[in-house]
Amino acid sequence: MNNELQIVRGLKLGRCHIVEDILGEGGFGIVTKCQNMRTKKIEAIKVNRSAPEEMQMALHEISYMKRLQCLDADACNIVKWNGYFFHEESICMNLELLDQNLIDYLDDRGNPGLPVTEIRPVLHQLATALFHLHSIGVVHLDLKPENVMVVDRTQQPVRVKIIDFGLASLLSEIQVGDYRGTNMYMAPEMMLAAPFDETHDMWSLGVIAAELAMGSMLYPGETDYDVLSCIIETQGQPPDDVLNRGMQTSLYFHCQRNKRQPWRLKSPEEFQRDSGLHPEDSRDIQLTCLDDIVEVMEELAGPHSDKQALLSLIKSMLHLDPGQRVKAREALQHPFFAPGVQRKEDAKTVDLIDEATGVQPQTRRNLKKTSDLRKMADMM
Q1: How would you list the strands of the sheet with 29-36, edge to edge?
Q2: How far is residue 265 CA from its own chain's centroid?
Q3: Three-class DSSP labels, 350-373
Q4: Is 17 helix (H, G, I), strand (E, B) or coil?
Q5: In this structure, how many other beta carbons lie within 10 angstroms of the beta carbon of residue 362?
Q6: Which InterPro entries match (predicted)?
Q7: Could you tell me the end-to-end alpha-carbon distance of the chain, in angstroms, rounded to an integer?
Q8: E strand spans, 300-342
Q9: For the chain, which domains are there?
Q10: CA distance 283 to 263
Q11: Can you tell me whether residue 212 is helix, strand or coil?
Q12: 311 vs 314: CA distance, rounded Å
């Protein structure tokens, strides 16, 4: 593991955190398991790299974690945030220690897909989390199995929480052309640079739901063309209205004037010629339509009626028209959640916060010294 931050077991972070283990590493930095010497509690400390871009992302995430303090982290199924501190020039975020992400959870079980009895509570908890986030005007924009943590793998039913708000945005601040997240879980309108809203998160949840059911990624791909090709082969093209408004549509589609279908997906050869990128189909399971998900699921996954209800929910989340896609509140009322699931219909909607608490982008670009970063972080 490339540990350029020089984080090792036994290292003291800040004033009172001793590193016990390295939990993971990403482009942002390193997540460690630490003991708080003051409280004796075990906590997860996310140590961000001190490069300007990573520092800006850390400041962005801190501003959103502060915004989420108006929510009950346990009831809303989001990670608890316990503040931040500095270790040398790196910002360290103090987070709730959780067990493992959904990818590892599936891998530990041999990844054949989960039974409906396990999928149901996971999706209900994630839809509940999105309902609360969207109710305060926050869109996650990077929902994927790696950003869904199992609280304790020995618990049944399994409890999950959403983590990593480094790419989150206020709905009111989303701009056409914003590109954030992981393309395999990205709604087609974002890849096309067409207008999008909070239903982007619902698309991501639908892709996760299909992956939990099949034990395999629904729409894998190195490039956006790969992902769009899989989507179109399985579900058909996005509506002409979405394609017409996409600023990047012409990268992937030919405009066919005076024809019944005004847009045609470029062939792999055409896309490679125009972009210089080599398209590749990396699916383990190729579906001809979303109905095939039920056929892929293990026989022991659950009764056929439950599988059909799950399929109906997935279809509503993966509607190609974002205007027709189900929203979190509506998803929680879906018949799939009726059997034995305690609905959280009494969730209170919190008013959208009018004034942002984070630093402004222009201010972030001007930050150079650690002392400036400390002052700016304290102002949030």
Answers
A1: 12-13, 17-25, 29-36, 42-48, 90-95, 81-87
A2: 27
A3: CCCCCCCCCCCHHHHHHCCCHHHH
A4: strand
A5: 7
A6: Kinase-like_dom_sf, Prot_kinase_dom, Ser/Thr_kinase_AS, Ser_Thr_dual-spec_kinase
A7: 33
A8: none
A9: 12-97 (3.30.200.20), 100-337 (1.10.510.10)
A10: 25
A11: helix
A12: 5
The Cα–Cα gap between 6 and 22 comes to 11
Tokens of 337: 């959640």
30 vs 35: CA distance, rounded Å: 16
Overall pTM surpassing 0.85 (yes/no): yes
User: Which residues sit opposite 147 in a β-bridge?
Assistant: none
How far does CA 111 lie from the centroid of its chain?
A: 20
Contact 64, 168 (CB under 8 A): yes
φ, ψ for residue 317 (rounded to 5)? -80, -30
- The DSSP secondary-structure symbol of 78 reads B
90-95 and 29-36 strand pairing: unpaired
Residue with the two structure tokens 């399994």: 158
Tell me how far apart the alpha carbons of residues 232 and 226 are, in angstroms, rounded to a whole number: 10
Angle between helical axes of 268-275 and 224-235 (0-180°, round to 10) = 160
Distance between CA atoms of residues 120 and 190, nearest Å: 28
* DSSP calls for 101-154: EHHHHHHHTTSS---HHHHHHHHHHHHHHHHHHHHTTEE----SGGGEEES-TT
pLDDT in tens, the chain (380 residues): 344 678 999 999 999 999 999 999 887 889 999 999 999 999 999 999 888 888 999 999 999 999 999 999 999 999 999 999 999 989 999 999 999 999 999 999 887 899 999 999 999 999 999 999 999 999 999 999 999 999 999 988 899 999 999 999 999 999 999 999 999 999 999 999 999 999 999 999 999 999 999 999 999 999 999 999 999 999 999 999 999 999 999 999 999 987 888 999 999 999 999 999 999 999 999 999 999 999 999 877 889 999 999 999 999 999 999 999 999 999 999 999 985 543 333 333 233 323 333 433 333 333 334 444 444 444 44
Tell me if residue 142 is catalytic: yes
Judging by DSSP bridges, how do beta strands 160-162 and 12-13 pair with one another?
unpaired
Residue of 107, 142, 241, 354 marked active site: 142
DSSP secondary structure letter of residue 177: T
Count of alpha carbons within 13 Å of 199, Cβ hemisphere only?
18
> 10 Å Cβ neighbour count for 208?
25
The residue type found at 153 is R
